[in-house]
Structure formats: structure tokens, C-alpha cells
Amino acid sequence: MSVPPGSGWPGDPAGPRTPVARGPSDVVRLARTANAAQVAQRLSVCRACPRLVAWREEVAQVRRRSFADEEYWGRPVPGFGDPTARILVVGLAPAAHGANRTGRMFTGDRSGDWLYAALYRTGLASQPHAVSATDGLRLDDVYITAPVHCAPPANKPTPQERDACRPWLVRELQLRWPRVRVVVVLGGFGWATLWPTLRAAGIAVPAAAPRFGHGVEAHVDGRTILGCYHVSQQNTFTGRLTEPMLDAVFARAVELARLS
Ligand code: SF4
């Protein structure tokens, strides 16, 4: 069960006539010619990965007990933020009961609590909380996307699912790159995925991908790629990632965006 396109869900970019990708070759074809609005429309109805389609819809039907009365989005989650952003944030994938429920990146879960609070403290978000698509949150100079747009079981997409979803991010990078100055990558999965994605977008990258680490900076085509531990509970509960560490990354991103 998922929200039908065009049924009035707040912020639903798609309609009943939006073309649906039913396999990886469809994703390639539909992403290649899309403008920014069409990327959001088309990926939000994508059905190219059978395992992920089944999982996201099952989660939306079964639901967590605390959200039993809520309707779940249950579809791929498009990027969210300032369309003219100089700072791009690349995560991993939507959370089953977070963005897969609310339909907006990092909204409605603990990871998002950490991320948006940090963006707010850095002056990049209008409020520290993100609970639903109608909570009024606005981002300034930052845009959030992911290499995989459907919630995966155990937060682990397969290599085939990662590769199937890549054309959506390739197209987003092509469209946003002229404006982007900094890419903040949350976690090693996003970091490893970004390099071949940049290359597929026609952007020259080093032959060997730089090693991921928190605070690591790499330089590509006049932009900075900035590593950051993921805001997962695994990192924030254990103290591997602290609020000052997260704030320092976004303060650096703002500094780099303003310098360039
Ligand atoms: Fe489509 Fe990406 Fe979701 Fe696969 S993960 S179904 S390619 S949006």
C-alpha cells in the first residue's frame, strides 16, 4: 500500500500520468531527459527494484504501532531543499518509518532530528524539527538527496538496487552541479557511491576514490566533497558522531560555499 500519485498528498510531485520506470533500463531512459521537476516526479513513482517496491509497500501497510493511525507515503522519496543550493547533502536511503512514512527526506525519525537540528544551528534550516511534509520546514542553500530513493530492508540496498537507482542521482548532479560548491556526504555508503555517480554525470574524478572519513575533504572540478559520519542512531547513540562534530562539518560547508 502506498499513496497513489496525484491523490492530494502534500508535496506529491507526481500525477496519474507520470511515466513509471518498471526496470533499470526505464530508469536510464526517464532520468536522462528529465528536468529537475521531472526527476522528482518520475523517481517518486519508480518501480524498478522489485524487492524494494515490495518492502516499502509492506512497511506502509503493516506500519509501526506508534504510527498505526497514519497513512504512509510508501513510495520513493525525492530530494528536498533549496533548488538553488550551493550545498548538496547526499545520504544513504529513506528510513522505513521515517521518510517512507512522511514522504520527505530525513523527516520523522531520529536521524532527521540530528540532521535538521544541525542545519538549523548552522543557519541552513528554518526550524530544528522535521516531523511531516506539512511542518513548514524550509532549507536555505542546502538540498538533500540520496543514492537510493526507496527504503531498503535493514538499511542495506543491494549493489543491483544501488546501480539501478544511480541514474536519478546522475541527473540531479548534472542539473545542480553548476550551482553546487560543496557536497556533504553522510556515511561510507554514500561516499563510495558518489564517485562513480559523478563520473557517470560527466564530471572528472580521481582514478582512485579518496578514503572516507569524518571531516575528510576531497576536491573535484572546483568543488569540495566533504565526508561526515552518517546521522544514524548507530553513530549518534554510541557517541561516534556528536553534535559538535556534525556542526563543525556544516560550518565548514557554509564557509566553503561562501568562499567559492
Ligand atoms: Fe526506483 Fe531507485 Fe526505488 Fe529502485 S531504489 S525502485 S531505482 S527509486
Description of the structure:
The protein has one domain (77-259): Uracil-DNA glycosylase-like domain (Uracil-DNA Glycosylase, subunit E). Helices cover 38% and strands 10% of the residues. It has helices at residues 24-32, 36-43, 50-62, 99-102, 110-121, 159-176, 188-200, 233-236, 243-259; strands spanning 80-81, 87-90, 142-145, 182-186, 217-220, 223-228. Strands 1-3-2-4-6-5 form a 6-stranded mixed beta sheet, sandwiched between helices. The radius of gyration is 17 Å and the shape is globular. Bound molecules: iron/sulfur cluster (SF4).
Number of domains: 1
Unreliable stretches (pLDDT < 50, length at least 5) are none
Terminus-to-terminus distance: 45 Å
Strand order across the largest sheet? 1-3-2-4-6-5
The residue fraction in helices comes out at: 25-40%
CATH architecture: 3-Layer(aba) Sandwich
Give me the count of strands.
Answer: 6
Biggest pleated-sheet summary = 6 strands, mixed
User: Tell me, what's the shape?
Assistant: globular
Strand content: 5-15%
Q: Going by CATH, what is the homologous superfamily?
A: Uracil-DNA glycosylase-like domain
Mean pLDDT: 96
Structural class: alpha/beta
